[in-house]
Design a protein that fits this description.
With 192 residues, this protein is an alpha/beta fold. 24% of the residues lie in helices and 28% in strands. The protein is built from 4 helices and 10 strands. Strands 2, 3, 4, 5, 6, 7 and 8 form a 7-stranded mixed sheet that branches. Strands 1-10-9 form a 3-stranded antiparallel sheet, with helices on one face. The structure holds inosinic acid and magnesium ion. The site of inosinic acid (IMP) has 17 residues, from strand 6, helix 3 and strand 9.
């Protein structure tokens, strides 16, 4: 696996440090916006919706830094089937955990990476139809390209160059998710 790596963009240590500050920011903002820290608040449980599978490691590390009462309802979205590295339409699957009515709920939607924005747009459109009290959005990575940089988003851990990356949950052909850092692959491995 290591032989397929071209270069490391973000080390495990850099990611861990950034998550500490991001988590603090999220807790402060969400408590202020929602009153979630108030034990008397009628809806004092945060609803975390991670988009699987890419956000799996990010969410696991982030939620353990959020000392808030929460429920976690994973959903999935797939826009890069197999070895394709360009967007090919999106399939959303809310499973049976994401409530069809989100009235009274404060939702934090979490994805791995903001690229064209079509995944987050499709998911936020659908979640907004379900009427949450608040909907905040968070990604680990945002690519420095116009479509991503102009997309409205609440929290971004890192802005990265517009390159295909894997590791820390992100995949190429469902592989490399277990790499502890964010890396690029050698061109002969990932053909765009
Ligand atoms: P978007 O819909 O174009 O914003 O793409 C978002 C989704 O595409 C993410 O949730 C990822 O699953 C996938 N994706 C986009 N860029 C990359 C990448 O560089 N590496 C791995 N997956 C990516
Ligand atoms: Mg994804």
């Amino acid at each position: 696996m290591d032989a397929d790596i071209e270069r490391t963009l973000l080390s495990a240590d850099q990611i861990a440090k950034r998550l500490d500050s991001l988590a603090q920011q999220i807790v402060t903002d969400i408590e202020a916006a929602t009153g979630l820290s108030d034990p008397e608040h009628p809806h004092n449980t945060l609803t975390i919706i991670p988009i699987m599978t890419g956000s799996i490691i990010f969410v696991a590390d982030l939620v353990r830094r959020l000392p808030l009462r929460m429920r976690i309802y994973p959903m999935s979205a797939s826009s890069y089937p197999g070895t394709a590295t360009t967007t090919q339409g999106i399939t959303l699957s809310f499973g049976d955990r994401v409530p069809s009515e989100l009235g009274g709920q404060h939702v934090l939607l979490i994805d791995d990476i903001l690229d064209s924005g079509s995944t987050l747009r499709a998911v936020t459109d659908e979640l907004n139809k379900r009427g949450p009290d608040t909907l905040h959005t968070c990604v680990l990575l945002r690519k420095q390209r116009d479509q991503a940089m102009s997309f409205p988003i609440d929290y971004v851990a890192f802005d990265i160059p517009d390159e295909f990356v894997v590791g820390y949950g992100l995949d190429y052909d469902d592989q490399y998710r277990n790499l502890p850092e964010i890396v690029t692959l050698k061109p002969e491995i990932a053909q765009g």
